Amino acid sequence: MEKIIFDCDTGHDDAIAIAMAAGLKDEIEIVGIIASMGNSPLENTLRNTLNVAEAVGLECPVFRGSENPLVRQRVAAGDFHGESGLDGVSFPPRKRQECMGNGILWAIDTVMSHPGEITFVSVGPYTDLALCIKAEPGFAKALKKIVLMGGSMGRGNATPSAEFNIFADPEAAEIVYSSGAEIVAMGLDVTTKVTLTEEIHDRIRNMKDSGYKKLLLDQLAFYIRSNLTHNGSMPNMHDPCTIAYLADPGMFTLERHQVHVETKGELTYGRTVTGPVDETAPVSFGTDCDTERFWRLFFRSVGNLK
Ligand code: RIB
Ligand code: CA
Q1: For ligand 1, is residue 163 a contact (CB within 6 Å)?
Q2: 12-23 and 211-231 are packed helices; what angle lies between their axes, rounded to 10 degrees?
Q3: Known catalytic membership, residue 9
């Protein structure tokens, strides 16, 4: 059983990752979720996270995380995920509320009282994770590992140089990559190879009916349109790659690299700069994925949801 703390900036692909984890509850235990600013402001991402967690039957605590990056001005979210940060989905009135208390302090307490047991998964800006690492010197070493969505050994998507999660808080990312923890990074090099094609969309339409199937189709209707409008392509499964890695790591090809983040450049701010392949390096970057295996896992996981 993989025990995880899931840190997200719930937009559409974060929501799919949460659902996949919920559908794999015999393999992945979400100890708690921390919602962070990123795709949209914290009040949106916290509300979206609570709504999705309730919709997929998760009972773990959901905490409020960082409202702003460590140093830079918060990145304007834009309309990629819509005004709510998860446009296309209308949720019923929600019963559950955020867990009161500071998500960063809760994460530090949880990890330090379970050394070596918990994996920190971050699929939004790494601000919360960086604050844990800086506030508690033993935190990085007490983690089982870190699994990230973010970065790129090639072009970015927020700018030509930077992938969004890094661009949203480059200083936090540098703290994480330099923490000494064992890191698996699902960057654009691999996540852009996992695309929700029209064939997959048809397979989702043909799934047995469930409350989650309707939610998924509603959110995809918006998300596919947004991707086609902004990128001219179908959506990539960026954040879900982290959950797929936890459930079936063998579907991914990884390369170990030293990684640092450009925090001084004007045009290159937020670029992840990787050294040559280095088997002693702490960061394993995804380079390829057996997408048949990914989608088999996807349908198995969401097929378990009501
Ligand atoms: O670059 C993709 C990442 O940025 C994903 O985590 C997506 O949710 C956005 O946060
Ligand atoms: Ca995200």
Answers
A1: yes
A2: 150
A3: yes
